[in-house]
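We were asked to recover a plausible sequence for a given structure. The inputs and outputs are reproduced exactly as logged, with field labels preserved.

PROBLEM: sequence recovery
POSITIONS: 447
GIVEN STRUCTURE:
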């Protein structure tokens, strides 16, 4: 299998730091953009033109790609603004523009003729007929609808073999068809297809029945052991099916959702899928390996969604009991880009030992000095703190997540190394239990 024929791993880039983390943890390409005309306004605000340009340069220096999201739907009054924004993005020389409508495809061709166009999943492409229309318009890649099946992807590829197909394999799912939801707009005025969804589907709801003739309204009792998160879709997790997807030969890019998620998510999820892909090509694929890492992240429960199973073939894609649950681990700290200091993400004290999670291909030196000890146990690296000292020399007994000081390490570590501990230990340090938190403690990895 040549490098050119290998599937691409595409990860989210919510800001410059998360972009760099995703790239260091194994992504071949990342996607993101500024808030203007993006479907992730909140994450887009963390990028301005200068930092996004810096991110593109950082990726290109490492032989990686950046796809620019300009994937909301413009009103008539915004068409000229949209055209100007596309021209600005084109000046940064991203590797593709992600757009959502035929009209914007035409604009992008006119103002950025040298930049490939990728069609957003918002366009709901489910079949070869629609795919061919966009292909004839000059679209190089289609990000297929989340509701599509692998067999339908095979059908599209058989008709248009030169059209690239990109498919989501991990991350948040929308309960509405390809994200075309109006609940947030109705309840809060925040329009999902304009990039400002309030995630109203994640809330618990009570259900009522009203008789207009009698004026009687009564609440419908919930089923025992089933909660009221009636629209709360579980998170997609197709890591166990990466071998099946790659064996089909019809998917060109595996995409991870999550521009608004944490740096830890960006690193760990990207690394898990990097290993799944590489292990498949090496003939050493083992699903449990990747699921163990994915279970460390916060999630709403997992489902393998629709690429492998049709929507009507399953009824377990909603999480009825909770909005979100803890993963098996909590981030304790994040090492800076220079590898010399770390910043606290969770209460850490002198004497604590934390697990070291390295970027893809990185190694670490074993040391034992006045600041701490780095050792290896059963193939995993651990850091034990003997001192917690700021760069300015202030010594601390404990440090909390609100402390933004750069803290010294006992030895240089690879940039963006993650430090983590098990969730029960993290909660205990804060005096919390499952009963005292709104989130579930024990992860339930369904699907």
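RECOVERED SEQUENCE:
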């Amino acid at each position: 299998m040549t490098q050119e024929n290998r599937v691409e791993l595409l990860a989210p880039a919510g800001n410059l730091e998360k972009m760099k983390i995703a790239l260091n943890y194994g992504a071949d390409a990342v996607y993101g953009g500024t808030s203007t005309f993006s479907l992730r306004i909140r994450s887009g605000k963390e990028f301005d033109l200068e930092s996004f340009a810096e991110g593109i340069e950082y990726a290109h220096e490492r032989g990686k790609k950046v796809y620019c999201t300009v994937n909301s739907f413009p009103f008539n009054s915004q068409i000229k603004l949209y055209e100007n924004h596309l021209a600005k993005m084109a000046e940064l020389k991203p590797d593709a523009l992600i757009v959502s409508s035929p009209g914007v495809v035409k604009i992008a061709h006119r103002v950025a003729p040298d930049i490939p166009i990728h069609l957003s999943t918002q366009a709901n492409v489910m079949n070869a007929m629609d795919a061919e229309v966009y292909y004839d318009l000059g679209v190089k890649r289609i990000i297929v609808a989340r509701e599509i099946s692998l067999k339908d992807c095979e059908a599209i590829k058989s008709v248009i073999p030169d059209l690239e197909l990109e498919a989501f394999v991990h991350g948040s799912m929308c309960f509405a068809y390809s994200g075309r939801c109006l609940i947030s707009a109705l309840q809060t005025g925040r329009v999902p297809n304009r990039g400002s969804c309030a995630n109203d589907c994640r809330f618990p709801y009570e259900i009522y029945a009203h008789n207009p003739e009698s004026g009687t309204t009564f609440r419908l009792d919930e089923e025992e052991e089933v909660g009221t998160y009636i629209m709360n879709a579980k998170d997609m997790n197709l890591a166990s099916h990466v071998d099946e997807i790659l064996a089909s030969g019809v998917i060109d890019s595996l995409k991870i959702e999550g521009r608004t998620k944490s740096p830890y998510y960006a690193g760990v999820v990207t690394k898990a899928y990097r290993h799944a892909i590489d292990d498949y090509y090496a003939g050493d694929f083992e699903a449990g390996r990747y699921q163990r890492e994915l279970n460390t992240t916060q999630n709403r429960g997992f489902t393998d969604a629709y690429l492998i199973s049709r929507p009507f073939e399953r009824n377990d894609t909603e999480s009825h009991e909770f909005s979100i649950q803890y993963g098996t681990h909590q981030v304790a700290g994040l090492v800076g880009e220079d590898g010399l200091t770390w910043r606290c993400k969770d209460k850490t004290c002198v004497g604590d030992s934390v697990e070291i999670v390295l970027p893809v291909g990185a190694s670490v030196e074993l040391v034992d000095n006045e600041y701490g000890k780095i050792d290896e146990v059963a193939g995993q690296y651990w850091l034990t703190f003997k001192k917690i000292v700021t760069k300015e020399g202030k010594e601390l007994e404990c440090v909390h997540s609100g402390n933004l000081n750069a803290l010294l390490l006992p030895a240089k570590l690879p940039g963006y190394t993650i430090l983590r501990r098990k969730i029960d230990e993290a909660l205990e340090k804060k005096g919390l239990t499952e009963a005292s938190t709104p989130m579930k403690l024990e992860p339930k990895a369904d699907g």
